[in-house]
Amino acid sequence: MPGRTYGVGSFAVDWEQRYDFDRLRAERIRRAQAAMGEAGIDGLLLWKMENVRYLTSLRAQIIAGKASILNGVLLAQDGPPVLLPSGGEVDHAQYMPWLGAVHAVPIMEQRELVEGFVREILGPLLRERGIAGGRLGIDQTTIAMIELLSQHLPDVRVVDGDRAMQEARMIKTPEEIAVVEEACAIGDGVTQRALDETRAGRRECEIAGDAMQTLYYLGGEMPHVITPFVASGEHMAPPHRFATDKILRNRDLCFIDIGAMWNGYFADIGRCTVVGRPTDRQRQVYQAVYDGLHAGIDQMRPGNTTEQVASAVRRGVAAYGLEEHLFSLFIGHGIGAGSNEPPYIGETLPGATPAELRPGMLFAIEPLVWVEDSGGVGVRIEDMVLVTENAPRVLSRVEYEEALLA
């Protein structure tokens, strides 16, 4: 299965080998424990949704605004992970035989409940695994958790655990890439549905609703952006990064960025189309983004850096005199179990550092240019790109808008 370069289908079948999820889970644990060893971490206590999914395969109910305080996982340097789910997930865990243990936990918000967790659940687990006097890596948590760990487990040294998980997740395994291929097939379908439904007289929110219907029809778990991004006409200059009740009209550009998750892995795909006949200015901006995107993709080869990719994008856009109109956000980002994850391409904020590209790195590259003249023109195009031993491989396949290519 890992040798295939397409999404083969999301069903379990008896007539071909598809996705080896047992191997996928085992390799993820191995990578995480190797990263722990390199960082000198004795145990990981993780709450970020993508890290919990990566180590346990828990597909949980998500309560808005509470994702990072609902479910956790404890991982020692050897042995299987211990799932720490909110009470509603406990019964489901009986179908997850790869877990070492399961302990129900409260929502990690009310201080008294957090204290009970630290004293009655976490403390004994750490002692059983020889971590009570060691370095405990945490990705994110509340101040209450940090204070109560110090109070009840004073010999535990809390350190950064998210960095180790970022290292573990950065290079995708063949099994992970196979799952991402399926996510991209779904993401392509979602994007195509939105493009097909884009026409004058429809609202941005209607187009987003149609796309979300296709997402669930095809077995997707959630969009890449929880607030589906459908922005038209003046809403792309500057960009409104969510769908509104604005009605599309003739000569509006319309950008769609919704994506898909499948079996815990994200696809992030974006396309821009036009209602009616485009203007010369719209074609110019679209062509600049298109050229910049493909100049950047061409640089996504082993040994090059993220800054070389960003520079190529900027040069492609600058050829049209539009470099200063690039959106202030980064130009691209890593992707996988996390919807956005390091390394980033074209980040300019303090602390930004270039990363060397290695085979198995996966990115969404997404230049956006917007200008206020001509009533407002904004264009983004986004593709999923895998760094291989040789040339980069573009995993997304939705057609570009020929009417906008100059």
The strand order across the widest sheet is 4-3-2-1-5-6
Amount of helix: 25-40%
Distance between the termini: 40 Å
CATH superfamily of the largest domain: Creatinase/methionine aminopeptidase superfamily
Q: Tell me, what's the shape?
A: elongated
List the helices and strands in order.
HEHEEEHEHEHHHEEEEEHHEEEEEEE
Please state the average pLDDT score: 96
Instruction: Tell me the number of strands.
Output: 18
CATH architecture grouping of the largest domain: Alpha-Beta Complex
Count of discrete domains: 2
How many distinct helices?
Answer: 9
Beta-strand portion reads 15-25%
Q: Which CATH class of the largest domain applies here?
A: Alpha Beta
Structural class assignment: alpha+beta
Radius of gyration: 23 Å
CATH topology of the largest domain: Creatine Amidinohydrolase
- Major beta sheet summary: 6 strands, mixed
- Which residues form runs of ≥5 with pLDDT under 50? none
Please provide a written account of the structure.
The protein is of the alpha+beta class and 406 residues long. The chain has 2 domains: 21-168, Creatine Amidinohydrolase, Chain A, domain 1 (3-Layer(aba) Sandwich); 171-404, Creatine Amidinohydrolase (Alpha-Beta Complex), CATH 3.90.230. Helix content is 33%, strand content 17%. The chain has helices at residues 21-39, 49-56, 111-128, 143-152, 162-170, 174-196, 204-217, 280-298, 306-318; strands at residues 43-46, 72-76, 82-84, 101-102, 135-138, 157-160, 229-232, 253-257, 260-262, 265-267, 270-274, 332-334, 341-345, 362-365, 368-371, 377-380, 383-386, 393-394. It has a 6-stranded mixed sheet with strand order 4-3-2-1-5-6, sandwiched between helices. It has a 5-stranded antiparallel sheet with strand order 13-12-14-17-18. It has a 3-stranded antiparallel sheet with strand order 7-8-11, covered by helices on one side. Helix 1 (21-39) packs across helix 5 (162-170), helix 3 crosses helix 4 and helix 8 packs antiparallel against helix 9 (306-318).
